[in-house]
Amino acid sequence: MQADQxxxxxxxxxxxxxxxxILSAVAVVLAVGxxxxxxxxxxxxxxxxxxxxxxxNGTNGTNGARGPQGPAGNGTLMVSFRDTxxxxxxxxxxxxxxxxxxxxxxxxxxxxTASVTVFIQHTSGTSDNxxxxxxxxxxxxxxxYWPDGQATVAASAASDNYIITVPVxxxxxxxxxxxxxxPVGGSxxxxxxxxxxxxxxxxxxx
Length: 206
Hints:
Blueprint: H1 15-40, E1 77-83, E2 87-89, E3 94-95, E4 101-104, E5 108-122, E6 128-134, E7 149-153, E8 160-174, E9 178-181, E10 184-188, E11 191-205
Antiparallel strand pairs: 1-11, 2-11, 3-10, 4-9, 5-8, 5-11, 6-7, 6-10
């Protein structure tokens, strides 16, 4: 009787090894994907830090060059004048000592407004009259052209010294830019003096 031979297990094929390799590769891919996902999704914001101290101011830069002067504006110009000198007034046109001039940038109109005080030495029975004017140049004639104001003491008034303030206002055109002179003056047939004058000269362009 022949003895039974032992049965050998069949040899292991490479299929199981391939499955293990595939599973290992899948695990690696999944791990890498999880890492990428963890890096892509930001975590919660941390607390805001305290505000830092203000830095020191920088040094100032140097001044730039001065630009050219702009053209004259359309506004008015004004100068004032005042004279306290005592000036005797004669029958010829007497100019007050005040230098009343203005420099203008263009053609336009100049308005002179003044308050002129005269001192009249009056004798009853004779009328006294002082004609006050504002000229556009130093007068060369014996009279002060047309008076812009008058101070009068009637003949019937008692003999005395009279102080009278005469308001004057004159508007005159100027044809171009330049400096213009507007003297205050007057004349009288009696005895009188200028004692005070004050006023303004205003230029209006156009």
